[in-house]
Amino acid sequence: MPNPKGHPENLKPFTSDREEPLSERLNLRITKTMKEELSTKADPPEFCRRAIQEALDKDKEK
Fold first, then answer.
1. What's the first-to-final CA gap in the chain, in angstroms?
2. In degrees to the nearest 10, what's the CA dihedral of 44, 48, 54, 55?
3. Among 24, 4, 6, residue whose Cα is nearest residue 14
4. How far is the C-alpha of 9 from the C-alpha of 39, rounded, in Å?
């Protein structure tokens, strides 16, 4: 019988080698076209993080 809690490797805490840990989550709605384009990227979550950070940095300069 399969383990109802999933694979043991999935139960390990998430770790990152970043300066600031990725501890928060953000949910947002996007268009179907945007999702299709985003899914073609090699690392969609990192692509989104970079895009958001660039927009935040640009906004600070104003």
1. 59
2. 150
3. 24
4. 25
For the four alpha carbons of 31, 39, 50 and 61, in that order, the dihedral sign comes to negative
Q: What residue segments make up the domains of the chain, in order of their start?
A: 28-62
Answer yes or no: pTM beyond 0.85.
Answer: no
Give Cα 21 distance to the centre of its chain: 12
The pLDDT tens digits of the residues spanning 16-55 come to 778 888 889 999 999 999 999 999 999 999 999 999 999 9
CA distance 14 to 22: 9
